[in-house]
Amino acid sequence: MSVVTLTVNDELVSAQAGQSLLAVLKELGLEIPTLCHLEGLSERGGCRLCLVEVEGNNKLLPACVTPVQEGMVVTTHSDRLVKYRRMILELLFAERNHVCAVCVMNGRCELQANAASIGMDHVRYDYLSPDLPMDASHDRFVLDHNRCILCTRCVRVCDEIEGAHVWDVMGRGVNSRIIADLNQPWGTSTSCTNCGKCVQVCPTGALHARGATVAEMEKQHDFLRWILDGREKKQWEHNR
Amino acid sequence: MSRTITIDPVTRIEGHAKITIYLDNDGQVEDARFHVTEFRGFEKFCEGRSFWEMPGITARICGICPVSHLLASSKAGDAILGVRIPPTAEKLRRLMNWGQLVQSHALSFFHLSAPDLLLGMESDPAQRNIAGLIAKYPDIARNGIRLRRFGQEIIRILGGQSVHPAWTVPGGVREPLSNDHRNQIKRMLPEAFDIIGLALDLFKEAAEDLQEEAQVYGNFPSLYMGLVTPDGGLEHYDGVLRVVDSGGKVLEAGFPPERYRDIIGEAVEPWSYLKFPYYKPYAYGGPSYYKMGMYRVGPLARVNICDRAGTPKADEELRAFRQLSPKDKPVASSFYYHYARLIEILFSLEKIAETVEDPTITNARVRSHADVNQLVGVGVSEAPRGTLFHEYHVNEDGILQKVNLIIATGQNNLAMNRTVQQIARQYIRNGEITEGVLNRIEHGIRTYDPCLSCSTHAVGQMPMHVTVIAADGTVVSERTRG
User: Fold this and answer.
1) Long-range pairs for A57-61 at CB < 8 Å and ≥24 separation?
2) Worst-scoring range by mean pLDDT, A46-60, B195-209, B271-285, B319-333?
3) Are B95 and B27 found together in one domain?
């Protein structure tokens, strides 16, 4: 595999051709905020938090879906980037009803952690406060649309790893909604295998275990690596 | 010329309120009203959420007594699950509730009311607050802070944080008590006992000089309601409802709390956001006669209705309390809410001391697991300010369809209005109003320690705006303090 050389934050870096820019930045140990990205799932480029500046390009590029190229000059942290990342987070908070204090994921939520690390202490936009339901029809899990950021990790893990494809996205823009099967209560879904992968990969409290109370939900992502190593490398040893 | 006097906001209470006093043409008090000017809306916006979340959500109703809401909400959740929680979980919930009684009552007595009781009802308003108390009686103020801290520490030890701990849940509690933590509570107890002894002496000394106030600060016949143990002892977590009239006659001896709607109605007035709960059987002529069903809840009601406290020191103090009223009648003056509060602190400390010695208190089994088994759940507990009702209606998935909350302070609404009228009539003569008189009226409200929201204004430095309005609506005079 050929090697490319690029410049990241004024330092020369080599990477393998075909790698995503985000993978290279993470290898370098740089802290790049992400929400829709999850190791082991296909990239979507939806949340835009991993935006970086690439010289010669007026637009900011999402690192997760940008392949590395020879001679690329990348900046990962600048006032402009922080401004936009913060704006994205504020818009996510304004779009639905994220009430951290009473959320099952309080203290372990990826959205909350990103907001805290970027120093987002308030939201400058009007809250939309949409009237959204909770779907608690499933025996084991609950879907709370109020906390959903439409990252589609649940859609991807169900399709790509479990192979059931229970989840989809309905509607457009701000009206988009995660749906089970043909937009029916999750508990009535005939394709759901009750595996809970979607719950484990969800970055917020949108999907959680039934009966979980405030700040009680813990999620594990490492099963993804285990399954993929098993499938791809036939390594079934799992060291939790 | 008739006039209207407004006290807005009322200070050193928890929440936002104002008082309006209406004077007739001769300058005598015609009417007085206590308005609650804030609206919270919890009953409505909780609809559509899951009952599992309710302890966490409803705890946010109040920053002073979140534990009361946690408990009532968890108990309503227990009822929806249809489970009996493990015995250790119940003991731990009780332990946290006693911790909360201590901290809340200490806050009311030392931080909010002691400035009036010790510095004088009509003393300089610039000093008449916790800061003034610290300046003049540093030891007393420090004791108050220490005692409150004791209660807060118990809540923190059990729940992980002192405000809004999400520790009690439908089915029990989340974490058991460790042996280290039990010993930590034990070590803190002696100092708390010392402080409450001093506070009782302090109150009795102050009360001797405040006999006139004791006669008019909410001194009127009313009903009293609260929980008691099945054998009539003082109770704060479970038990049965008891209603006693002003003559000491027991109207409801052991009413099942979950059927509270059969005896409690809620009236609404256009001038206040706070509803007016009333005792239904006394509103003979129908809901419009709701004022006939006025009852008081909280510390005064609880010590009035119980046969005994059930702990030695508190029972001794209760006997002294009973001397305030002849022939076994309930003590009628709301001024003695202060006294009742101190008795309850003493009781709580004794119960905490007893509970931490219980060998089963550190058992690890503290949570029962189940799913929705009942579609309606009622949870009732005694908050520091009185009986608290949470009623949830859920669908088969546990999603809330309807929520009814009856908060302790609301049940004292009729009595608080009556108290404001009584004090205004006593101290406002011929339309003469001094700052001290206005403070007396505010203190009448403070005796109930009303908790109007989760906001606290412990240091009484919010400006008070008084407007005197003539019958034709023109402003005659205006005064601002603070």
Assistant:
1) A60/A84, A61/A21
2) B271-285
3) no
> Residue B342 falls within a domain, yes or no?
yes
**Same domain, yes or no: B237 and B146:** no
Same domain for B101 and B208, yes or no, is yes
Give the model confidence (pLDDT) of A67-120 as tens digits: 999 999 999 999 999 999 999 999 999 999 999 999 999 999 999 999 999 999
- Closest by Cα among B107, B16, B13, B24 to B425: B24
Helix, strand or coil, per DSSP, at residue A109:
coil
Examine the pLDDT at B272 and tell me if it is beyond 50: yes
Domain range annotation of chain A: 3-77, 84-233
CATH number for A3-77: choose from 1.10.287.370, 2.40.37.10, 3.90.180.10, 3.10.20.740.
3.10.20.740
Kindly provide the ipTM of the predicted complex, given to two decimals: 0.90
Does B194 share its domain with B228? Answer: no
Whole-number Å distance between alpha carbons of B300 and B386: 9
Note whether B247 and B178 are same-domain residues: no
**Would the pTM count as exceeding 0.95?**
no
Which residues in chain A have Cβ-Cβ distances shorter than 8 Å to B57?
102
Residue among B46, B50, B169, B401 with most chain A CBs within 10 A, to mutate: B50
Asked if the Cβ–Cβ distance from B174 to A134 is below 8 Å, we say: no
The pLDDT value recorded for residue B1 is 59
- For residue B9, say if its preceding peptide bond is cis, omega within 30 degrees of 0: yes
Taking contacts as CB-CB distances below 8 angstroms, the residues of chain B near A134 are 48-50, 399
Question: Exposed, middle or buried by CB within 10 Å (0-12, 13-18, 19+), for B400?
Answer: buried
Q: Is the predicted pLDDT of residue B421 greater than 60, yes or no?
A: yes
Average pLDDT over residues B213-219: 94
- Indicate the residue of B50, B164, B369 with minimum beta-carbon distance to A134: B50
The reply to whether B164 and B235 lie within a common domain is no
Residue B413 CB neighbour total at 10 angstroms = 24
Question: What share of chain A in percent tops pLDDT 70?
Answer: 98
- Fold exhibited by the domain A84-233: Alpha-Beta Plaits (3.30.70)
* Cβ within 8 Å, pair B397-A213: no
> Range of B198's domain?
84-219+333-359
Two structure tokens written together for B309? 């406290």
- Does residue B409 lie in a domain region? no
Nearest to B52 among A131, A187, A211 (CB): A211
